[in-house]
Amino acid sequence: MTFNHISYTAYQYYTVKYIVVAFFTIALCFSSGKAAVNIIPKPLEVIERPGVFVISSKTTIISSANLSNEAKLLRDYFKTDYNLELSNKKNNSVSGISLLISKNSLKSINPEAYLLKVTQKGITIHATDAKGIFYGIQTLRQILQQNNSTLSLKCIEIFDEPRFGWREFMFDEARYFKGKNVVKQLLDQMAYLKMNVFHWHLTDNTGWRVEIKKYPLLTEVGAKRDSSEIKINRIRGGFYDGKPHSGFYTQEDIKEIVAYAAARHITVVPEIDMPGHTSAAIAAYPFLGSLDTPIKVPHSFANQPNVLRVSDPRVWTFITGVLDEIIELFPSRVIHIGGDEVKYEQWKNNKEITDFIKEKGLGSPADLQVWFTNKVSHYIESKGRRMMGWNEILGIKIHDYTADSDVSVKTKLASNTIVDFWKGDLELMKDALNKGYNAVNSLHSSTYLDYPNLSLKEAYSFDPVPAGLDTASEKRILGSACHMWSEWIPTVKDMQGMVFPRLAAYAEVGWTTKDKKSYEGFMKSLPAFLQHLDKQGIYYKVDPSSN
User: Fold this and answer.
1) Within the chain, how many helices (H) and strands (E) appear?
2) What top-level class would CATH report for the domain 32-160?
3) What is the pLDDT of residues 257-266, one digit of tens each?
């Protein structure tokens, strides 16, 4: 009996912490180890061959100087996972694990592609770039088999490359701050699953989590709130916990995390919300707001009416000052500016802003938002970066609370914008793609991990490419995303139970071609991943809707 023959129907709908342990115990009694092809995300081509290669303390890692980062990580993995210390050589004079950059060894020029070969004489990972080497290492980790004190691999040849170049996990810490160690653990699991974009939501109404030295009150005031809204029996009814919550990342913290991610070939994309979702910033610096009265950092997670006074030159000075420090901290080519759920009432009730709309010849509050967004985009581009924002920045109506008259838009969104499509009819996404915009499909009903009723199978079944696109529009979809919003996720355990193992399903969505995907095959590979989570001390629930 092997993992391949276990039926998972019985436990799909229950918290697996209390059930799969029994399955694993039975399986391990009869199995010599996990099958070599139980890899998440599923690779493109696999050829299994007879024989095994045994790894011991005498095995060496053979790599060139330009792969020192990848070689070090591989050594660290063996030490951490198996308490095995391997030495590193810069030549291939002995048998071992060879990491080789070669421009002609692969049938793909994709820098993330790799070719992993295991023979009875040794292991070789070929790639055209260090990224591919790194992903080959992650596959190597998943096919290692341990029987008692023996560590081995079945002989195999794997060629692999991703379907999409953008494979995103978004983590919201504006609502609840979790800290460096939690973020690093998430980055480690992203790396294990070959995900490469960490979208970090750092500011919102209820918290500002990144140090900006030019504006210290953003963290002295904006990173703290007196209480937090809670649900009771999953019902929202104006309940609050009465407990202060605070926390932020210093710039040194940010640099440390960005470097940690970069070593794992993960790009950290910061999100700094504007012009809405800005109550924490306005509480710190009241001149930023469209009202003339000070506010406190809200306790409620409901969307707030507070919005930046974009007609005020001081606000633009603030925005550029913040962006300058964010761009210095984050080398990401892409900077996310939010732009979602802007309520226009404060703009409509502020004479200075309504006069500004007329002065600029704009047609509505939504037109003002597009105008403002373009100004931000041009500034970001002047720094050699590219702006991304939620799809409201197109000037379209996707919320019932927005009046039709508020979305009379004359201004065209800057053409280099990346549209993060999270809500609305998919025809709106298709229209944006047809107009030449790049997009990431973040449709909330299919990608939001804070939705407990979004099953593992539904997560796996998500396709970032909507049906009916022409070839040109399809190529404008950068990739896939999944999102961990944290309004109702105060603890690390709560967060882990919502993220895992659905993150593995989204990893396969982003990496594996449609013709190679199989939910049944994914479920056969899942127990090995759950064992990995157990070793890491990470909590998980196959059914996140369970209590």
Assistant:
1) 18, 22
2) alpha beta
3) 999 999 999 9
